[in-house]
Design brief:
By secondary structure, the chain is mainly alpha-helical. The chain has a single domain, classed as Arp2/3 complex 21 kDa subunit ARPC3. 64% of the residues lie in helices and 5% in strands. The protein has helices at 10-34, 48-66, 83-90, 92-110, 118-143, 148-177, 184-216, 249-271, 283-291, 318-351, 354-357, and strands spanning 36-37, 46-47, 70-73, 76-78, 232-235, 238-241. Strand 5 and strand 6 form a beta hairpin. The longest helix is centred in the C-terminal third of the chain and has 34 residues, at 318-351. Keywords: Cell membrane, Membrane, Transmembrane, Transmembrane helix, Transport.
Length: 359
Amino acid sequence: MHVPDGFIDAPTSAITGVVAAGALAVSLRGARRELGATSRAGEAEYGGERTAPLAGLVAAFIFAVQMLNFPVAAGTSGHLLGGALAAILVGPYTAVLCVSVVLLMQGVLFADGGLTALGVNITDMALVTTVVSYAVFRGLLAVLPRKRRSVTVASFVAALVSVPAAAVAFTLIYAVGGTTDVSIGKVATAMIGVHVLIGIGEAVITALTVGAVIAVRPDLVYGARGLRQRLRLRVNGTLVDAPAPTTPVAARTSRRTLWVTGLVTSLVLAGFVSFYASSNPDGLEKVAHDKGIDEKTEEHAAAGSPLADYGVKDVSDARLSGGLAGVIGVGVTVVAGSTVFWALRRRRSADVSPVDTGV
């Protein structure tokens, strides 16, 4: 659903740019809290030493899976948006930053998604998908049994809803600042219809990924916080929370193993599996072509990039060119994402005074 330059006029693009900048500013503050959250006992329940590297990995994984277009309907494909997945794994504020890092890397290095439309894409693909999906996710967890399976089920539904929500958001933005004279009713019908189907693929990928992580390390899943009821002990006639168990060395090793496994998986998906992805246009491209929205599409400012269109310039072998581009993309994204989140974590640590920690 990457919007190219020329779909939306300059004033509307500027307004969405302001909205995106505001969302990123709020998310930076919120992510600092998410990266430094502690339990009531003062112990790291979901701290930055766990979250920061996982957040960088989530960004890289989203980049990799977005290269895997899957067939949806005749002549149309879809790909992961990632807002729901990131929100559930690392928290909603951090998720907005994760998806935004991916969109920035794609726009600057791979000429995917217009640079003047970056505000549109961040607003639509990072902000709307995250806010909608996480609201649905938390609402479902409030009524479902407090079990791990409930997290997976809620993940599926939240991801499913987030994609047509993004389609609706794009339609509204187009209604305000579209550069072609196309009936909004036609655009809305086509966009929502195809993206409901794409949402099923998003839901499957999100549920499988969340389920896989929660099966081995539920403590690393932001959306699963508080899933277990804390053990309570009666002391002198009063019920008090039992101390949280210390994380064993094996679990810490498992965290590193999970990170390495996730990175290797991302590299394999982007560097090898992506060659077999569907070559059909995605939902937005198909609707734009069929309805004439793309009549005023402009050439991407980074069209001359050595990695434009997910291929390495001057490498003639298509498989090798695409694979190298995917591996480079995963590497750059994980470094950029991890740098951002480690910096936020360090800033959070510097802001915590002895009074805050109870020292």
